[in-house]
Write a structure and sequence with these properties.
By secondary structure, the chain is α+β, with helices and mostly antiparallel strands. It has a single domain, classed as START domain (Alpha-D-Glucose-1,6-Bisphosphate, Chain A, domain 4), CATH 3.30.530.20. The protein has 5 helices and 7 strands, in the order βααββββββααα. The chain is globular and about 45 Å long.
C-alpha cells in the first residue's frame, strides 16, 4: 500500500443532541473564545475577512499552520469549509460537515476532512494526519461537539442540565421560599 498516493480524505462521525443550526452557530462563532470550541484554532491567529448571513471568509490556525477558509452554510444540512490559501494546504483541501437530523432529536454529524499538501511540509503532515495523527483529529472533533453541546446546555447523555445557580442567588431563593411558606401558613 502506498500512503503517498492515497486519497487525502479523512472521515469522522459523531452523534449529538444538537440541531444542525446549533452546531453551525458554534462552527461559525468567530468571536473571542473560539479556541475553547475548536482547539486547533488559536484566538490570536483568527482574522475574519468577511462574515455574511450564510458565508464567511476567515483565516485561522495554530502551531505555525494557518489556512484561509471560505465557510458556506447556505444548505441547512451541510456546512462546507473550502481552503482558499494556506502555508501547507492546497488543492481540494477543506472540510465538509453533513448533518442528518432524526425524529428522536438526535443529529448525526459526518465530517470529511481533505488535506492535500501544497509543499513538502504539507505533504508530510498530510501523511501523518491520515495515519498516526488521525486519532488527534478525531479527538478534536469529539471535543468540539462536546464543547458546543455544553455551550447549548446539552451533554452526551442527551439530558438538559440547568445552568449553575450562584451561591448568593441560591441563598436568596431559599430565603424567598421560606418567607412564602410562612406567609401561606398565616
Amino acid at each position: 500500500m502506498c500512503i503517498v498516493n492515497e486519497t487525502p480524505e479523512i472521515h469522522f462521525h459523531q452523534t449529538t443532541t444538537l440541531t444542525p443550526q446549533q452546531f453551525v452557530a458554534g462552527l461559525t462563532d468567530f468571536g473571542p473564545g473560539r479556541s475553547q470550541l475548536f482547539s486547533n484554532n488559536a484566538d490570536e491567529h483568527l482574522k475574519v475577512h468577511h462574515h455574511g448571513w450564510l458565508e464567511a471568509d476567515v483565516t485561522e490556525g495554530s502551531g505555525g499552520i494557518w489556512e484561509r477558509l471560505h465557510y458556506d452554510w447556505s444548505d441547512p444540512n451541510r456546512a462546507v469549509l473550502t481552503t482558499i490559501d494556506s502555508n501547507v494546504w492546497g488543492g481540494a483541501s477543506g472540510q465538509t460537515y453533513t448533518f442528518t437530523r432524526h425524529t428522536n432529536g438526535i443529529t448525526d454529524i459526518d465530517l470529511l476532512v481533505v488535506r492535500e499538501g501544497k509543499n513538502l511540509k504539507g505533504r508530510l503532515l498530510g501523511i501523518v494526519l491520515r495515519t498516526i495523527g488521525r486519532h488527534v483529529l478525531e479527538r478534536a472533533f469529539e471535543n468540539s461537539v462536546k464543547a458546543i453541546e455544553a455551550r447549548n446546555g446539552k451533554f452526551e447523555n442527551h439530558e438538559l442540565k440547568p445552568p449553575p445557580i450562584p451561591e448568593a442567588r441560591r441563598a436568596a431563593l431559599q430565603c424567598t421560599c421560606a418567607v412564602t411558606n410562612i406567609a401561606q401558613r398565616s
